[in-house]
Amino acid sequence: MMRSTRSLLALASLAALAACGADRPSAALEAASANAIWDNPKLRAEAIRLAPPLFALHCASCHGADLKGAPGAHAPDLTDDRWLFGGEDIDTFNMKASDVEQTILHGIRAPDPNTRNWPTMPARGVGQSLEPDEIAAVTEYVLKLSGQPFDAKQIPLGKETFEVEGGCYDCHTLQGWGDPATGAADLTRPRTWLFGRDRASVAQTVREGRVNSSPAFAGKISATDAKILSAYVLSRAKTLHYN
């Protein structure tokens, strides 16, 4: 009986090792760059197949198992048609796997020397940057830009505050389209906002500011895993165009 049990355990161990080996990245995938993996249909398919367990382990706590953003995590939906932060290609304005890889490895506003350390949403209610009536008015103007119900009486002051005193246009553009170069939100697409879209949330954002970050995984995951995750994230997005 003891010998039989040991034999079964040995077989189980061999089966587990074989399964692990079957799920190991190929040598070709390990040697290729993130962009080369994406451009090669066979390597891309391999990366996408290997990615879900990695995503569940490292990314799902913020971005959700479905990549649509976990409740309360204030993380972007990775499956929609809006890239909060753009990439390096300013000719086609298309995201590359290497852009996603950069964010995975070095994060956004993370304690990493190579992080994407972009500006944050300033607190306009601090230090009398804006008066309470201006904050209330620009809140209504943002609601108008986003296509939500707004108080029309507040719009003249709100528009003036947005375009002059508040300087909101500098990051969000006069049209409210946002700027992927800095991570400024597109105010015309409230479904892509990270911190709530109702009147109270918008007012709080204007008054107190917002800051968010993405951790740097360099040194925590392998370079190959970062490339695998990059291909997976790109594959789930509705578009690669970021501008």
From TrEMBL:
The keyword Transmembrane helix does not apply. It comes from the Bacteria. GO terms for molecular function: electron transfer activity; heme binding; metal ion binding. Keywords: Heme, Iron, Metal-binding, Signal. Residues 1-18 form the signal peptide. Residues 46-146, 153-237 form the Cytochrome c domain. This is Cytochrome c oxidase cbb3-type subunit 3. It comes from Novosphingobium sediminicola.
